[in-house]
Amino acid sequence: MMERVEVSHEMIALVGAGSVGDRAWPAGAIAIDYAFGGPGAAPTFRYHARPDRRALDADAAARLILIVCPAACRRIFGRLPAGDGGAYHMPAPIRTIALALRDCALPIAMRDTYRLAKSIELLCETFGLLVERPGELVPMIGEGQLSQADSQRIMAARRLIDEHWSEKLTLDGIARACGLNRTKLTRGFREMFDSTVADALAEQRLGEARRMLMATDLPVSSIGYRCGYLNNASFTRAFARRFGVAPTQYRACGVAA
């Protein structure tokens, strides 16, 4: 059974291998599960909005779990993280704190106080990412088949699309800019964002084109060019596939309404 550290009446930490046990948790608790990895497996952490004891017990490897009252998290951090159950690569600063907590070799009288303090520090650092800086989180892709570095490169590719969608972007150009080969970018992008690179780019361009059709008097061909389409025919085809009508018809219906 995992060792239990009583941090406060609102928080406990579970350390080591084995079952989480059946002792009471804080009411309506949330959980953060830290797995330290091993050969072929990267260190990860996972946020559980509704932790299930049986699910947590499914992993018997040595790990660390923080169990916290959600009211305390809202009081301290302002809100709870979005989402539930997503696994992320464990950043080095968080891993350092977690390992220090797990591997503390101080005498028992000192160890409890040390682990209590480290548990609070770990919770604060983790919530800083989950709540304040979620863009820094690197999701696990394909059961860890992509490294943390490659996952970060795929996230950089998404930022490139979101920020430079109006420029002449190609799959090969995006891959080169982000330090990936074409195959790894294509596979990883689909797994991370449930979208192809081309679809993500089109979504940005066509969304802006739709806005410009309603908000400006610019000719349709000029809007298509500004949104990254080299000619009016390709813009019209793409717009009609996405919205079901040609740009001119979309504008006419909007004006009529």
Automatic annotation (TrEMBL):
Tagged with keyword Disulfide bond: no
Classification via PROSITE patterns: HTH_ARAC_FAMILY_1 (PS00041), HTH_ARAC_FAMILY_2 (PS01124)
InterPro entries the record matches: Homeodomain-like_sf, HTH_AraC, HTH_AraC-typ_CS, PchR_regulatory_protein, Tscrpt_reg_AraC-type_HTH
Residue ranges of domain HTH araC/xylS-type in the record: 155-253
Coiled-coil regions, chain positions: none
Keyword terms of this UniProt record: DNA-binding, Transcription, Transcription regulation
Annotated protein name in UniProt: AraC family transcriptional regulator
Organism the protein comes from: Sphingomonas colocasiae
